[in-house]
């Protein structure tokens, strides 16, 4: 397919969906871009436009939330670097709302349907000749998959239903994944550490390797990144591997006392919007501030950013910090490169080369809420000491 770079600057054209392929039209085109393509002069203004749209997401979210600027910056940087992230903290600290609002800015959260439509939907599905794809239509191409896990959640609820007739007729174990996590661009799992062993292994490969195994075959997925939320880190060794797949762990604390009035005002504004159906970002077309493809494109650009020779000094500084912290805070080898990408993603959004201030990504590697606070203080002191 021929690339029309001008479409990148048009958010609707860049975000266009390819119904036949059930994926964003530009997803395959971005996958095929080479470093030489990214360095072509005619592409530069469009890359700049993508950066500006992601910065617009940051601004829209910071306007909506009180005291969550660091979290918002990391949500956006993690999507560029394609690094999974989990938000930890007590109930009521906006963990889920931040991720959902981020997805609202991308225009990928579905509108709800009146409960009365459920009866008609079931009647259509119950017809012998009805095809699931025809009845559910676009909802089978859900771009965001979000789910609240419990200890009783089954693989079918996350990964898709096993096709019983194929087992009976063909002796083939095949999952129907349309509309489920393997087909999503963004996955958000609330109370993620309630996951049981039945779905654990599938989540491991899906989140980190971007692979889904179906019928014994590995399929690459279109996942940009995954977000999780939990009141506390996992307390069992069984979930340790999943926790390590989320190298960024950010603590969402209650709003400080001196910002309670701002919190109340924002809550009033949010409630008014919900009551009267006003979009969260009324200045944006259809409430969409950026496209998921902006993050795909900038992930490619990120590797050009990493190869900049001016980053050699920062790479040495970064590796030194990793060596210093890895044993004391249990930072695994798997985490090294994702954190390095994340540091450069932060710098890219600020329009500068990576520098000492981007060592701040190490603040978010704590194994527990308590060690996260100690680590944040230590990393902050180190950055302050290194500044001229």
Report what the structure shows.
The protein is an alpha/beta fold and 388 residues long. It has a domain at 52-111 and 121-292: Rossmann fold, CATH 3.40.50.300. 50% of the residues lie in helices and 10% in strands. It contains 18 helices and eleven strands. It has helices at residues 6-9, 11-14, 25-32, 35-38, 44-64, 69-81, 95-105, 117-126, 132-136, 155-159, 164-170, 197-209, 240-244, 260-276, 292-306, 312-329, 336-350, 369-386, and strands at residues 17-18, 23-24, 85-88, 144-148, 161-162, 175-176, 186-190, 211-214, 217-220, 225-230, 248-251. The strands form four sheets. A five-stranded parallel beta sheet has the order 4-7-10-3-11, covered by helices on one side. It has a two-stranded antiparallel ribbon with strand order 1-2.
The CATH class assignment of the domain at 52-111 and 121-292 is Alpha Beta
User: Stretches where pLDDT falls below 50 for ≥5 residues?
Assistant: 280-286
Total DSSP E strands: 11
Arithmetic mean of pLDDT:
88
Summarize the helix and strand pattern as letters: HHEEHHHHEHHHEHEHEEHEEEHEHHHHH
Oligomer: single chain
In the CATH hierarchy, what is the superfamily of the domain at 52-111 and 121-292?
Answer: P-loop containing nucleotide triphosphate hydrolases
Quickly count the helices.
18
Tell me the CATH topology of the domain at 52-111 and 121-292.
Rossmann fold
Classify the beta-strand content into a percent band.
5-15%
Q: How much helix is in the residues?
A: 40-55%
CATH architecture of the domain at 52-111 and 121-292: 3-Layer(aba) Sandwich
Shape: globular
Radius of gyration: 22 Å
Structural class: alpha/beta
Task: Tell me the distance between the termini.
Answer: 50 Å
